[in-house]
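Minutes, project check-in
Item: structure for the 180-residue chain
Input as provided by the requester:
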Amino acid sequence: MNGKILAVHLSATHTMHKFPQKEIRLLKGLGVAGDAHQGEKVKHRSRVRANPDQPNLRQVHLIHRELHEELKTKGFSIAAGEMGENITTQGIDLLGLPKDTLLYLGKEAIVKVTGLRNPCHQLDGIQAGLMAAVLDKDQAGKLIRKSGIMGIVLAEGMVFPGDEIRVELPSQPFVALERV
């Protein structure tokens, strides 16, 4: 199972929108160099308020372009990076990956998948109703979060648009992704 990186983004400040880059550097144990969410300890503001000493399981945020296409059918026009992702992918069912999947990005970088991004009300600041559009329920009534996945950097390296993503699944039994 392979995919492709379509775009890379970062923001030095806590903004929802991340800005397109020609490249990003992933730093082992820290995240995206120069990004506001870079660090060993949690940087997301709501998580910092709850407990600033938590490990940062949200160093890298990935969203699949297929979500943007799904949202377009619902009347939303979302550009890559606009929902806060560092990496926009294509060709991989990110939401279907199990916890601890390894993503080999480009030539050197490795990201370990930690969980689902929990969408927040800030999405409605992009377009009204966007938060509801990235939430769904399965047949059993369980909440489905569609706004991407989070991971930690195991091996650093440069990541470029056009780079290949190679997926390595963990040993079974697989553990389904939960919000982090």
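Outcome recorded: The CA atoms of residues 80 and 88 lie 6 Å apart.
No further action items on this chain.
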